[in-house]
Amino acid sequence: MKRNKVILRIVVTLAAVLAITFWVGMSSKEVEAAVIEQPTPINEIFTDPVVADNVKTLLEKADVTDEVTQTDLDSITQLSAKSAGITTIEGMQYLTNLSELELTDNQITDVSPLANLTKITELGLSGNPLKDVSALAGLKSLTTMHLIYTDITDVTPLEGLTNLQELNLDINQITDISPLAALTNLQTLSLGYTQVSDLTPIANLSKLTILNAENSKVSDISPLASLSSLTEVYLRENQISDVSPLANIPNLSIIELTDQIITNQPVYYQNKIIVPNVIKGLSGELIAPDTISDNGAYTSPDLTWDLNSYINSVSYTFNQSIAFKNTTVPFSGTVTQPLTEAYTAVFDVDGEQTSLTVVVNELIEEPTVPTKEGYTFDGWYDAETNGNKWDFAVDKMPASDITLYAKFTENEEPNASSSINVEPNDDNSINVEPDASNSITVKPTENNDGTNNPNSSGDDKINIKLPITGDEWNVLPIFVGAVLIGMGLVLFRKKRQTK
241 vs 446, which has greater pLDDT? Predict the structure, then answer.
């Protein structure tokens, strides 16, 4: 037993030592770039002919078939090949000292060969059909990166590149820039022609001096109010209605605010449309409309339209010069108010009405089934008389107001009481007739001996009350049957016991 314990302790100790050694080795191991072990022809290292030719030129070799060593490749610190038709950058993992790489406008889809080139400070990959840039997450030395016009939608891999000072993400389908919140050294950020609507993540980038977010989806620029270092801001062709957050940014000198496209939430069409003005200047004051569609009028703070028939929208424009501390710039755009064609559906229950507004060609929501004492609800009809029954699963709202009437059918009630008159005939038979008194009237006949019999025509009557339904005596046979069965069971048991 003691020997087993010793062996167990030795095994545990060895396992612990191995685990610690492995952990230390892994944690202390730095990312290493790939190396070639022996002289190799350039075109065998770099499989894309354009890249191979560039390397040949940089190394002053006669042909791409010439052999190079790792030392040769280490001498390359810059490489540029714009619009060269490059499809793969395989082999670039051996350019261990590369600091500047420009590959704009090629056909590169995989950037994984760059994953361990940690000395790169400037990287241009614009105009490539890239969807995944996760391989760039470890390039911590990057200070400048251009990813214009790619296929990326997720910028999460960039969140750890905290040395970035310039980042261009123009013309991408990006919506969420929250990973950029940690890039506190950014001085220039470009998000033009993207789907970005929320600038909140950049509110704390205090070193930011240039921001481009033109032709995006920005409507709220209040996150910029805290960016006191801003000198240039490009915000044309967005959805901005209020420029007051820019009022206290001291060093703004270049500002673009033209051609805003603002679309309000749809409202139901009515003959008279009233819409509040939403355009505000530097001090929060309302900016009067420049033009108003469809003969609309403006009396601050509202715009009003008197419409004779349905149209799908009304609009107004604005164009105002805004005086900043260092410059005066135009603030212009169009505000559109969409109108939804909708009418009133009225539900009439014996003169009592409720209503709701329903969009044309949409299904009407069926109301709660009404009740009426003594009646059964038949459904809703589109006319008070001779109307058609409304099918809420099929019938759609017309382009006019409509009234639907609740129809009921009176319930058929059985006679609450009935009687049977029993009167003798001359042949001693008995007529049985119902009577409203719910009784049986029996008229006896008189015998010669002074007694009465059923076919008597005397006035004496015997009234026997009958139940409305069923038979008052129909329990007796059941009771008798139950007693007989019980007696039979008792006798049967006694007989068995005697055996």
Answer: 241
Residue listed under structure tokens 């990973």: 179
- Strand order in 302-306's β-sheet? 272-276, 302-306, 297-299
Peptide bond into 301 cis (omega under 30): yes
Token couple for 259: 């051609």
> Which pairs from 428-431 meet CB under 8 Å and 24+ separation?
428/453, 428/454, 428/455, 429/455, 430/454
**What is the spatial distance between Cα 332 and Cα 240, in angstroms, rounded to a whole number?**
10
**Contact criterion met (CB below 8 Å) for 45 and 66:** no
Q: Which domains does the chain have, with CATH numbers?
A: 40-332 (3.80.10.10), 342-410 (2.60.40.4270), 418-490 (no CATH)
Digit-coded pLDDT (tens) for 428-466: 444 545 444 444 444 444 444 554 544 444 444 444 444
Instruction: Tell me the C-alpha distance between 217 and 438, whole Å.
Output: 84
Torsion of CA 93, 94, 97, 102, to 10 degrees: -50
Answer yes or no: are the C-beta atoms of 462 and 439 closer than 8 Å. Answer: no
Taking a C-beta distance cutoff of 8 angstroms, is the pair 223, 202 a contact? Answer: yes
Beta strands in 382-457 (DSSP E): 402-410, 419-424, 430-435, 439-442, 445-446, 452-453
Q: Left if phi > 0, otherwise alpha if psi is -120 to 50, otherwise beta: which for 372?
A: beta
User: What string of DSSP letters covers 148-216?
Assistant: -S-S----GGGTT-TT-SEEE--SS-----GGGGG-TT-SEEE-TTS-----GGGTT-TT--EEE-TTS
Instruction: Give the separation between CA 446 and CA 376, rounded to whole angstroms.
Output: 54
Q: Name the DSSP class of 241.
A: -
- For 62-87, what is the mean pLDDT? 98
Q: Which helix (H) or strand (E) holds 304?
A: strand 302-306
Question: 480 CB contacts (<8 Å, ≥6 apart)?
Answer: none
pTM above 0.85, yes or no: no
C-beta neighbour count of 14 within 10 angstroms = 10
CA-nearest of 241, 238, 250, 246 to 214 is: 238
Taking the C-alpha atoms of residue 438 and residue 50, their distance in angstroms, rounded to an integer, is 112
Instruction: Look at the block and give the residue holding tokens 């001085």.
Output: 187
